[in-house]
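Q: Could you fold this chain for me?
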Amino acid sequence: SNSASKIYKINLANNHVDFYIGGGTVNTTSATSSTIYASAGSIDLDSNNNLYFITDCNTTTPTYLTPKKLMMVSQNSDGTAGTFTEIAGGTCALGTPTAGQPAATQPLTAGTAYSSLLSIAAINPNFIYFSAYGNSPIKIVNGTIYSTNIGANSSNGILTYNRSSNRIYRSVSGLSFGYF
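A: Sure. Below is the predicted structure, expressed as structure tokens.
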């Protein structure tokens, strides 16, 4: 999508919907909830209620070919969005991330970066899995990026984390699905 997405928080108990973040043109940690650019696509919450999302490095004319960044926003005690943190892709370049390096200094995707086909599985702020269409999955542990072999037989798949069973699930090409 060429326009910024907005993310809403929905209270299922009373069906109340509140704006949370997005709709802006800023893709850095200086953003506020209404100035941040959020790409359409995968979001996830970790066990600490931090929200993970994708922002585009080119917020004026984003495409599937422009680099992306993985961002996190903390949640304030009143339930509003807090501060923004760049998790990976801060270089705003396409390329294969180098394992063992700080994730914020490494590219997030090597080639095409369809934000609608990216997936995030955030266990907590120190342990995050990420999968992008056409790219091998990666994991980020304590801010360091690593390759991972979950579903490595396919570079096309979606990740999700089940907190109840403490398992990562990943679909892979060929219509299979596995847990790790």
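A (continued): The chain has a mean pLDDT of 86.
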